[in-house]
Structures are given as C-alpha cells and as structure tokens.
Hints:
The protein is of the alpha/beta class. Strand 2, helix 4 and strand 3 form a beta-alpha-beta unit.
Amino acid sequence: xxxxxxxxxxxxxxxxxxxxxxxxxxxxxxxxxxxxxxxxxxxxxxxxxxxxxxxxxxxxxxxxxxxxxxxxxxxxxxxxxxxxxxxxxxxxxxxxxxxxxxxxxxxxxxxxxxxxxxxxxxxxxxxxxxxxxxxxxxxxxxxxxxxxxxxxxxxxxxxxxxxxxxxxxxxxxxxxxxxxxxxxxxxxxxxxxxxxxxxxxxxxxxxxxxxxxxxxxxxxxxxxxxxxxxxxxxxxxxxxxxxxxxxxxxxxxxxxxxxxxxxxxxxxxxxxxxxxxxxxxxxxxxxxxxxxxxxxxxxxxxxxxxxxxxxxxxxxxxxxxxxxxxxxxxxxxxxxxxxxxxxxxxxxxxxxxxxxxxxxxxxxxxxxxxxxxxxxxxxxxxxxxxxxxxxxxxxxxxxxxxxxxxxxxxxxxxxxxxxxxxxxxxxxxxxxxxxxxxxxxxxxxxxxxxxxxxxxxxxxxxxxxxxxxxxxxxxxxxxxxxxxxxxx
Length: 488
C-alpha cells in the first residue's frame, strides 16, 4: 500500500479504522521526501524529528477515540507562515535565521486538529513572483517536468502535493499564488474569500490582497482543509465573523440548473489555444450535466494587471519597511551607523525582484504621484468589484483558465518581467475583488497540466467547491494525476 499516493480523505478512513497508524503514514511520506525532494526541491526546512513526534501524539489521540479531519495527516507549510520554534524565512536572505516565537492562527488550528508538520516550503521571496525562481535559496522544479517551473509564489506548496511529499499543504495567494502553481502542477488550489481565513502570522506582502488557502490532491481534500483553517480571529482586523460550514457537505456531483458565466476577457490575447480548448471542453462537460452556460463580459478584468502592479507594490513598500536590521533578521554594516546599517542590510538581504517592487511602490505613493497612480488604481479596483457584482446577479459562478499557458521552462521568462507577470493575468482580478477562486486540473497539454478556474461570490466557497467537485467526478483524472511524468 503506497500511502503517500493516497488522498487525505482516503487516509482519513484508513486512520480512523485503525488499518494504518499515524507514524506509519508519516514514515511513508518522509521516505518519499527523501527519494524525490532532492530533485524537486520543494522544501526549505524539513522537520522530520518533529513529524515523528507529532505522529506519535496523533496516534495516541486516535487510540483514545478522538476523531478530527486532519488528525495524523502529514502537511507542509509555506515558508511565509510563522511556526513557533521552526525557521521561517519567506525564502529571503533577510530572514534566513528567523525563528518565530509564535504560530500563525492557521498553524495553531492545524496543531489543534493533530496534523503532522513535515516541513516549510519554498516560495518566491516574500511571495513576489510567479515561478519560485525568485527564492534566495533554491529553485523548485515541476514534478511533471523537472526543467520547468512549478509556478509561484506557492511553488513549493504545489510541487510537494504533486510529488506526494505532503498529503496537503498551505499556501498564500496575493495575485494567484495558490491557483497558478496548482494549475502548473496538476493539483487543486483554493484562494478563499478575503477575510474567510485569518492572516495573523502570515508575513505580509500586500495586506489588502493576501489570503491563506489549501493545496490538495482533490476537491474533497480542499474542502476538508478549508473547514479546518477558516473562522473569525480577533487578532486579524480583516477577519470576518462568518459561520464556517462543513464544506465537504456541499459536495455533490450534480449541477443541473446552475448558471455558469464565461467571461470573454478570460479567453483573450495571450491565452494558448490548447489551454482555451481544454477549459472550454471542461465547461461543456458541465453543460452536458445540466448547467446553464452564459457568455458574460467584465471589461475591467483587462485592467487588472495594471491596477495590481500599483496597489501591491505600494503595500509591499509599506510592509517591508520593518526589515531594518535592528530588531530581527539579517544585520549588515552595524559600524556604518543607523542609516548606513539599514541601507547595507536591505541591499544584501533583499533580492532584485523585491527591491524592484519596493521602488515601484514607493514611487506610486510619493508626493505628486499618489493621485496619478495609487488613487486612480484604487478607483479602478472599485470599478472592477462593481462589475463582478453586476455579473454575479446573473450567474452563480464564473469559469475560465487559471493561467494562460502551461508551466514554462526554468529561466525562460526571468529576463522578461512583463511576460512573467502576465502568467497571473487571469488570477489577479479575483484578488482585487476579494472573491473565492478555485483551480482544478482539467487535462494535460503536451504532457503538462492545465488548470480550470472557478470563481464565486463572496463567502460562497461552498458553490465553488461543489462545481469543482462535479467537474472532477465527471473528468475522472485523479489516477492519471497521481503519477507526474517528471518523477517516472
């Protein structure tokens, strides 16, 4: 029995029946990690000793009759989520030795459920990137083709699920950083509604856009993870006090009468014809099951990239000002005085992509340019949200591609910043509007996964997951996706 290949829900049944033990499952995942992660490089910090201890504790809870959805399940955590006593770097030199004294709220929730932590996952530095090539430490590789990127910024989180070195993982999504790597790696990834999941303990990139979410092998597993991490948190002022349903109960393979909107802007210039074909085939398969499909238009989606690359750098410029070499993290040039030390620390500690975004954001916020750039972008964001609201009066969900292309080659777009940023052009509008978005695999193109994106109304993750589940059951791709060809 190859336990590492199984889904979370399959393993839940085996653990609860006593057919396997939590230490046995953890050992299987750690063995897989030892075999394949030297090739994939999804992990920045492996926590095998802690995993053995947590697995033993989980087994004791199982033997006492306790049953929680994540009890004994090996999970990986993106390296921008604070973990007490475990190094948390944001894949940046400036935090290379930072060990938080506290847990992020989502990490506390996983601990309470009895999850087993197997390690911290690689990412683009401070979550700024679309390929995980902007990590200060290593480049993560796509399990479907080791010469290609896994996407970003949660590339390590997606690659770990695809390569079976974690049963599920947590990532964060500021402009597509869960959904785009999920699409590239052939796994399921969900960005919840802004405010659904507490951001306390998430090291901030752009605070009005960041949201934590799960990456999993199936939609059912995604629903389990979302229920586990959701809920109001008084420590996060943006956390919304909404009831948390058991999202698994919303899953059923029936979509008759459901209204699906297909924004024509999601199939425009830059979307590979083969990607568009796979996605349209997926939508048609739901239409055959009784869903109503309507073409719609959201013109402001075409401005999403421009709006995002004013607002996100502006917030990053503010958030990253705290890295000054004084309180924690890297310190360089202490002999140069306070200002000299800050300059030297930031010059050595931040990578080029982070520096570029800080400069853009500072410029957009500066006197004389604030109204021309930042204020105008905020107005554009409001118009975009209003267009989504208008369309959602007519349909239940929106569907289109997650990314315009499949995974690109390592190094292919590093020298072309615009092309790199365009890989998030279809996901960014969802963050700007604060909506839930799900990426589900919808087939392969030249041996590489393609992602179908399902976008929902605020706090209607239940419908988004239901549609994703219905498509997943109809498509029947799970067995094919269990075996990424790059690891064969």
